[in-house]
Amino acid sequence: MSETDILEILLRGAAMGMTLLIAVAFFRLCGRSQAARFGALFALSAAVYIPLASPLIADSLGLAALPLGYFANLEVVFFWWFALALFCDDFRWKSWRLAPFVLVAAFLALERTAGLPPDMRVAAGLGCRTIALILMIHVLIIALKDWGDDLVEPRRKFRVLASTVIALVSGVTVTLEMWVVFAPKPDGLHMLQAVAFFVTAAGVGGWLLLARRHLLPMESRRPAVVSVQTGARPGVAPEDRALLDRLIAFMEAGGFAESGLTVRNLAERLNTQEHRLRAVINQGLGYRNFAAFLNRYRVDAAKEALSDPGQARRQVLQIALDLGYGSIAPFNRAFRDATGETPTGYRKAALADGTAPAPPASSQAPAH
Fold first, then answer.
1. Cα separation of 122 and 65, whole Å?
2. Are 261 and 324 contacting, i.e. CB atoms less than 8 angstroms apart?
3. Sign of torsion over alpha carbons 268, 274, 276, 281
4. Tally of CB atoms within 10 A around 343
5. The domain made up of 3-215 is a member of CATH 2.20.28
6. What are the structural domain ranges in the chain?
7. Helix 75-87 to helix 162-179 angle, to the nearest 10 degrees?
8. Cα 27 to Cα 20, 74, 77, 177, 240, distances in angstroms
């Protein structure tokens, strides 16, 4: 065994150890966070994959490498689940999300079945890695799509830094695995991979262990309820209470209806720094993304308009536009998510009864 081989094994061992620490940290939060459960699965499978990706280590494990390899190669599916639960505040588990798991497991089984023709095994391997690439691309999309609306600062940073790095490292690894099916392995490939794993585990893992409690949505956590009348401001620093008052006053005066309103231009309206405004909305009102905060006010105003007999002939599209929505589709989606009904259905029921449920106070945080 050469010195290079020894160095590669040491790097992989260190990366595996750090990844196992991340898995343990996630496991400790599994009872309170769905994202932590998926994160623990991902970290554990990544810890298994890191050594198995080296022939030096895999060959020494003998038959034990086969079941471990199945679990290790499912890491992309576990990471996809983790990203969905972490970045999507309205995430709910759906049975169809098992489809990539089933497909990857089936392709892995075909790839490792010795009795099949070589071409079929190669095709199965390519199918498995194609699914992995698609999942990594989707992770990048969801990580960056709502970056501007994210009010949880550690998660906002994780979207760009850690998530992007993990997705890219995984994507490059999968691409190389597909490439070497058709061409000889380039010299130094496994050493380069070991260095990438070590750097990623050290950088991302160290930061994640420090930020995880603020990063992960806790199922037992309940957003604070702010009372305008009493002046209570849970979670808000004393120096930011005046800013929260200005924010609530601006929104209740109809500022939410401004088309294209973002955290940045809202901060300009309130003459404050963007990061302070994000912290006030998140820590003072309990919202994890700006769109949910904005939609709360807009949907409440839509309920009033739709249940008003004097506005019965106004088109739903016009109401949506007046509330700041650029088109009917995002309005319908936000209204249905908040009420479980379409705007048209809500209007028919409210006008038929002659009464409508009073919209909740917009200064309160969501109950979910």
1. 19
2. yes
3. positive
4. 23
5. no
6. 3-215, 238-353
7. 160
8. 10, 18, 18, 30, 35
How far apart, in whole angstroms, are the C-alpha atoms of residue 219 and residue 89? 11
For residues 64 and 37, is the Cβ–Cβ distance under 8 A?
no
Q: What CATH code would you report for 238-353?
A: 1.10.10.60
> pLDDT tens string for the chain (368 positions)?
788 888 989 999 999 999 999 899 888 888 778 888 999 999 999 999 999 988 888 888 877 888 898 899 999 999 999 999 989 888 889 999 999 999 999 999 998 888 889 889 889 988 988 898 899 889 888 888 888 899 988 888 888 876 677 777 777 777 776 776 666 666 677 788 788 888 888 877 777 766 656 677 665 444 444 433 334 455 677 778 899 999 999 999 999 999 889 999 999 999 999 999 999 998 888 898 999 999 999 999 999 999 999 998 899 999 999 999 999 999 999 999 999 999 999 999 988 876 544 554 444 444 33
Contact assessment for residue 47 and residue 19, using Cβ atoms and an 8 Å cutoff: yes
